[in-house]
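Course exercise 7: structure representation. Students receive a sequence record and must write out the corresponding structure in token form. The form below is the worked example handed out in class, using Ion transport domain-containing protein (448 residues). Read each field label carefully; the graders check that inputs and outputs are placed in the correct fields and that the protein name is recorded exactly as given.

STUDENT ID: A-19
EXERCISE PROTEIN: Ion transport domain-containing protein
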Amino acid sequence: MAFMCRPFSMTTKVLTHDDIHGSNTSMPCNNTSFDNSCPNTTYTIFDYMMLKATTLQPFSSYAANKQVTFTLQNIEEVWYRSDLCHLWRYTGLGWQQYVRLVAELMVLLMALLQIACDAMDIKNVGQKRWWRVMKSFPAKVAYKISFIFIILIVPIRLACALCSAMLLLENILSLMIVLLTGAHFLFYTRALKFIGPFVLMIYTILSRDISRFMLIYSIFLIGFSQSFYVIFGACERASKAKYGKQSTRWENILDTPFEAIMRLFIMTIGEFTIFYRSLNTCEERMMQMIGKVSFNFIYNFKIFFLFTIFELFISIMQFNLLIAMMTRTYETISRTSTEWKRQWAQVILFLELSLKPKERLIAMLKYSRPIGTDKTKRSFVVARKNTSETMSQTEKQLLEQQERDLREEKRALLKRRLKDFAHTPDGRRPMTSYLSTPSRNINGEKNE
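STUDENT ANSWER:
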């Protein structure tokens, strides 16, 4: 509620300086100003807001005036009544803002309390052990990072009147807090029987498969992006030489190395229409001496050959390799039917870190029993009633195997007793298979 009750329309109005109205999804632009449109280029709302927040003058008249002096008399008008600081307004805007006030205070207090509890846990178990345990729970790590973002929002909101970039930064941190806090629910679902293995699959795929794939993928991506960056740079120079420097007949979609990397990344997920069209309309003339017809054939063959190699090695081969890696991880974890029990035990052990060492020792003495005469050696006692409905297929097979082994052992013991009974001497009782006890004859003499 602290984030959902925010006045989003007012925030959009302030960040865009009241330039976006209704349902517009993009703003016209050109090379010099946002107010005049250009024929082929548009900025998205996020790009427009970022440029407005970082390049233009502050929206507030007080913040724009560099000679203003902040005093106790005008500080309320500068900070509280400024449009840049509209998030400080909780009155006169509906009941949602009162809910936001209470929710924001609760979120801040609980974040401070949680940080204090974490500091006590680190003191009890040690910093190295605490971090070693924390690394096994990525959802918990994300949850702890959200506390830092919550604390950072306070000074950023206090500096809201300086420029609109502060408001934009606060909204970015708020989005990150919501995402990181939502991931914390995965920590509790990993102990459930039907969800726990899938949560572990997500962690394993992200930490192993995706990391190895991105390492290999980045090598190909950077290499191909720089190759296409050189080609598109040559095409841009040829277009300007033919149609003039101010011409927009041919647009270079790879004008920077970073843009080349992002464009090729987008192309790997299937969007290559614009990229292919730009290649097809290139005006480069590197081989004029060979002739236009032969040049076009050879040069286009070179470009399209590079394009085909990229599509084969990146879009087809490597992404199918990633799918195969994730499938193997999924099958490996799904075959382990008791994985959710191990996750359940890990969650319990992690929750025990919040207890003091003496409290953990007392709890251990309650659920454990001593082994033999040595009271210092204790074991965990589990009493569970199994039925055919609650047992898994693997447990049923294991129980049947134990019953077969027990029957074989009883059958072997019976055969051994019958064999000993058949070979007993006259006048003696049949001996057991374990101990041959001495017997006496009728006259009372001892037989050895």
